[in-house]
Amino acid sequence: MPIYASTFTSGLEPLVKECFPRLLRGSQIYDIYNGLIVYRFEGKPEQLARPGIFANTYLVLARQNSPTFRSMVLQAGKAEPIYMSRVRAGQSFRVRFQRNGRLEHVDPALHAQAEQLISRRARLRVDRENPDWEFWYIIRSENIGLYCMLVNRREQTERDLPRGALRPELARCMCVYAGVGPRDTVLDPFAGHGSIPMQLFAMHRGIRVLAGDIDEAAVRKLRRALAEHVQRGAAQLERWDARHMNALPDNSIDRVITDPPWGVYDAERYPDIAAFYLDALTEIARVLRPGGTLVMLSAAKSELMRAARQVGLLPEGRLDIFVNGKKAALMRFRKPKARREQF
């Protein structure tokens, strides 16, 4: 059975371990590391993109403990070329070397040796700029090495995304963490560029999404992106201040999933993030149904926890992660079903 390795946002290991078997049926987890899961899967390669929670996915060709790049290249020369069925003679490729998450330049002779292993076996041509395929030698901090072939890459990198936009795979993880069901009504009060609403519809076409933002231009752009869902009545997009969502009835929302301003890295614009969160969570608690769930991403963790306590939301989980190199937390809360439930 083929072995694959997929990368995800560091800190989400508990979530990935819990949800992965049901997101990719027939998979078997082999190992899970910081931001990486190694697993067996015998299904069709196109199914590997189905979970939606990964950045990149690789076909593992060889694995080594206590590796060096030189020892890995030597091992690659002896490994069975299981990638042969996926490539066509004449296609292009490049070889990349990565240590602890960073690309690394190696001795040119070693790089050329690694390229020759592939070009001779598969009759592929080297293209270091824009190849059809990529082969990676990865050395991780856990002292393991993976020689692998990239088979699925993230849709967009940080360079491709608008400033402040969530990566699609992180937005999908937030939706999974919230436990979104196929018929839920879901709210994103700080929709911004729309990463969360887009992932919600990618997961469940039958859900209803309400989303808004204080930025009129962002709302117009999101209306265009979700025009199909707006036309069929599945999406409602509004310009609003999330602290005053007067158009939404009390107890009308099953899940709230959102990425609000953090304040920590934008103190001039949000000088009192604690008060801002208290006002926003007061509205969120009002519109959530009893038993409903809030999942929020923020770097202002103590301010968010304090505001949740003040409005009566119960903490259910927290995952500390890094977003674009900045410390943040994915926090989950629940609105009590009965008054006797307390923080």
Automatic annotation (TrEMBL):
SUPFAM superfamilies: S-adenosyl-L-methionine-dependent methyltransferases. The keyword Cell inner membrane does not apply. It comes from the Bacteria. InterPro entries: DNA_methylase_N6_adenine_CS (IPR002052), RlmKL-like_Mtase (IPR000241), SAM-dependent_MTases_sf (IPR029063). Keywords: Methyltransferase, Transferase. CDD domains: AdoMet_MTases (cd02440). Signal peptide: none annotated. Residues 163-310 form the Ribosomal RNA large subunit methyltransferase K/L-like methyltransferase domain. One of its GO terms (molecular function) is tRNA (guanine) methyltransferase activity. The keyword Methyltransferase applies. Pfam families: UPF0020. One of its GO terms (biological process) is tRNA methylation. This is Methyltransferase domain-containing protein. The lineage of its organism: Bacteria, Bacillati, Bacillota, Clostridia, Eubacteriales.
